Amino acid sequence: MSGDVTVISGPTAVGKGTVVRALKERHPEVWVSVSATTRAPRPGEVDGQHYWFLSNAAFDELLAADDLLEWAVVHGRDRYGTPAGAVLGAMDRGERVILEIDLQGARQVRARLPQARLVFIAPPDWDELVARLVGRGTENAEQRERRLHTARGELAAADEFDHIVVNDDVGRAVDELVDLLGL
Questions:
Q1: Are 59 and 36 in contact (CB under 8 A)?
Q2: What residues pair up with 80 in beta bridges, in sequence order?
Q3: Residue 136: CATH number of its domain
Q4: Residue among 147, 74, 84, 77 at smallest CA distance from 104
Q5: How far is Cα 105 from Cα 17, in angstroms, rounded to an integer?
Q6: Which of 73, 149, 170, 176 has its CA 20 to 30 A from that of 56?
Q7: Which domain holds residue 61?
Q8: What SS3 state is found at 12?
Q9: Dihedrals φ, ψ of 68, to 5°?
Q10: pLDDT tens digits, 46-83
Q11: Is the pTM of this model over 0.85?
């Protein structure tokens, strides 16, 4: 495998997806993996574009076939994972691969692909993270609390990553990623 793999991770609502989309807009040559999840789609999300939205049974089939590069239960409830075949195929083609995944997944990728570059997207501060989560309005109060509880543990693990990029401004964060990736 000759492709370059970069894992983009960070806590809920930090703007991982926004940063990755902006990176892809600037550099369409990067190959961004589409994760699978058992959670329901949010308004506007498209199956196969934002996530592969799977039933629990379909997710179990991927697990049984060892067809996930990484997977985790996120926020104590929904499962997310990265289909291995697509990622390994992109690597074989020599592509620049981006995985936008959670902390648990990043740790699994590090174990399976030790050459992967791990980048942690951090908020400017805790209050901004809370404001972003509340502001997007996609979770109820219980879901927000669960996500914020998870976020505290994720922020504490930032030093496990090769690089930390503070998302205080999307353009600046993307500039930093472009430099890190040598694009």
A1: yes
A2: 37, 72
A3: 3.40.50.300
A4: 74
A5: 16
A6: 149
A7: 4-181
A8: coil
A9: -120, 130
A10: 999 989 999 999 999 999 999 999 998 876 789 999 99
A11: yes
